[in-house]
From TrEMBL:
Coiled coil: none annotated. InterPro entries: LOG, LOG_fam. GO terms for molecular function: hydrolase activity, hydrolyzing N-glycosyl compounds. GO terms for cellular component: cytosol. This is Lysine decarboxylase-like protein. GO terms for biological process: cytokinin biosynthetic process. Pfam families: Lysine_decarbox. It comes from the Eukaryota.
């Protein structure tokens, strides 16, 4: 019987896993057109591993996602991949059935996870939204590397959750080669236009490369962790998110008068 460690597989939304809060990494499934993007992802993965924190990401071995997670694993760190069942099934083979008993082999094929590592945990979820919830529960902060629509949506949503008081966790964007400069400018435009309060500008932090250093060699990873650790929550929850509807209220249709008190 083989003594090779098996991939840890979890099905559900529980916080589980390590007691040490992880760091969520959002980034592209492509490498981008400049080496600085990949170097930044390598730096992030190495720094998270060196800090003894789990790297939590959406799964996948391509692009910056694979670069950051691979760097963490090669540095002796733990990686938690949170992936929707539909995506894993498609990657595992068109039309092939996949149950949790067989997910080990299927996921290793899909994500190309080395069979000689026990530092990878896979959490299989049913939806993209559930993936975001599971990731958010397991981390103490969020790092955004360059990426596309998915990256934009993810970093904006977890920032909004902090604004609403769902959690109190910092979002840190790495402005590699000015990638997030225009987003930062747009946030200031929204603030000046009266849509974002000045206090809420602190909900999201931008890390820039010092002018006397180069984007390809700057230590983006440790700079990101310093930004996370130095962030002080100053959010007054707008709502009590622990309140739940009774069974009889779920799906209930109410008249417009019910909206007058909201």
């Amino acid at each position: 019987m083989s003594t090779t460690p098996a991939l840890q597989t979890t099905n559900g939304t529980g916080s589980g896993g390590s007691k040490i809060p992880g760091v969520a990494v959002y980034c592209g499934a492509s490498l981008g057109k400049h080496a600085a993007y990949q170097e930044a992802a390598l730096s992030v993965g190495r720094a998270i591993a060196a800090a003894g924190r789990p790297l939590i990401y959406g799964g996948g071995n391509k692009g910056l996602m694979g670069t950051a997670s691979g760097a963490a694993l090669l540095s002796g760190g733990k990686v938690v991949a949170v992936a929707p069942y539909a995506i894993l099934r498609t990657k595992g083979g068109e039309g092939r059935s996949m149950n949790l008993d067989a997910v080990d082999a299927e996921v290793r094929r899909a994500l190309e996870i080395p069979r000689d590592t026990s530092n990878v945990e896979l959490i299989v979820v049913d939806s993209m939204h559930e993936r975001k919830v599971v990731m958010a529960k397991r981390v103490g902060g969020f790092i955004g590397l360059p990426g596309g629509f998915g990256t934009f949506e993810e970093v904006m949503e977890v920032t909004t959750w902090t604004q609403l008081g769902i959690h109190q966790k910092p979002t840190v964007l790495l402005n590699v080669r000015g990638f997030y400069t225009h987003l930062r400018e747009q946030i200031f435009v929204a603030q000046e236009a009266g849509f974002i309060s000045e206090a809420n500008l602190e909900l999201i932090r931008f890390v820039d490369c010092p002018t006397d250093q180069d984007d390809e060699t700057f230590d983006w990873g440790n700079a990101a962790l310093q930004a996370i650790d130095s962030w002080k929550p100053d959010v007054v929850p707008l709502f009590d998110w622990t309140v739940r509807m009774g069974e009889g209220e779920k799906g209930e249709t109410r008249g417009s008068d019910a909206l007058q008190s909201t």
